[in-house]
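F.,

This is the one I mentioned.
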């Protein structure tokens, strides 16, 4: 299976599936969050101003994270560091970059940062599910050879379609978050904690099948970050939070 990474051309300009799917996931995410933002009584114009910088902040963070852990290659090919249309965005970097810029912007406008993370969490994970198919068209982020019946023929062998595994896992987390959103016994931040904890748990195991992992010494970077995240979420949710939060669920928290 050799999919064409180029979706279509407009004159001399090639529109690649990877960029098209990333852009589509961003637009879908904005659409999904708008109604929830209005429902919570948050100023929509201010929210869009936050997104205006948080989205590029996430993209820059995703690329920087990837380039840093592939510095042996990009130091010799510096011009390729900006060629994101060829692939190479690290989700953990996107989360860090987007949250850092988002936090600064919400502080500027006086918006409830943690409540907003709950609102955007389902859009985050759905965007990740969609974006993984960009890896399919670029023929990257695949796994080791296998004879399992759902293996895909990639790079000369039948392999674990790890981009498919992660896309399906992310969809599962997406529907879980939508279910949790309807509950009234949650506290502010619980949906976002479920997002980063659930995603990281799945990513830890799926990463073990991949052949192109970013490495930190002898360790797979994504597994290391995922393990730390899962442990941190567990300790915060079940040890620190019960000892410090108020009794009222859905409390306001900036």
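My design for it:
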């Amino acid at each position: 299976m050799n999919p064409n990474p180029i979706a279509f051309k407009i004159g001399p300009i090639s529109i690649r599936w990877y960029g098209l799917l990333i852009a589509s996931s961003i637009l879908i995410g904005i659409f999904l969050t708008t109604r929830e933002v209005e429902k919570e009584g948050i100023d929509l114009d201010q929210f869009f101003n936050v997104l205006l910088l948080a989205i590029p902040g996430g993209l820059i963070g995703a690329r920087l994270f990837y380039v840093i852990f592939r510095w042996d290659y990009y130091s010799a090919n510096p011009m390729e560091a900006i060629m994101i249309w060829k692939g190479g965005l690290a989700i953990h970097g996107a989360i860090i970059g987007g949250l850092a810029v988002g936090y600064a912007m919400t502080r500027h406008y006086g918006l409830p940062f943690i409540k907003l993370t709950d609102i955007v969490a389902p859009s985050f994970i759905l965007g990740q599910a969609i974006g993984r198919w960009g890896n399919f068209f670029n023929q990257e982020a695949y796994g080791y050879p296998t004879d399992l019946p759902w293996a895909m023929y990639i790079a000369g062998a039948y392999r674990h379609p790890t981009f498919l595994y992660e896309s399906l896992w992310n969809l599962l987390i997406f529907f879980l978050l939508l279910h949790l959103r309807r509950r009234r016994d949650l506290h502010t931040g619980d949906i976002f904690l479920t997002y980063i904890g659930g995603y990281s748990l799945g990513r830890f195991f799926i990463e073990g099948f991949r052949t192109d992992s970013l490495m930190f010494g002898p360790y797979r970077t994504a597994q290391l970050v995922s393990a730390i995240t899962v442990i941190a979420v567990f300790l915060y949710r079940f040890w620190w939070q019960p000892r410090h939060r108020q009794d009222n669920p859905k409390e306001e928290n900036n």
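The chain has one domain: 12-244.

Talk soon.
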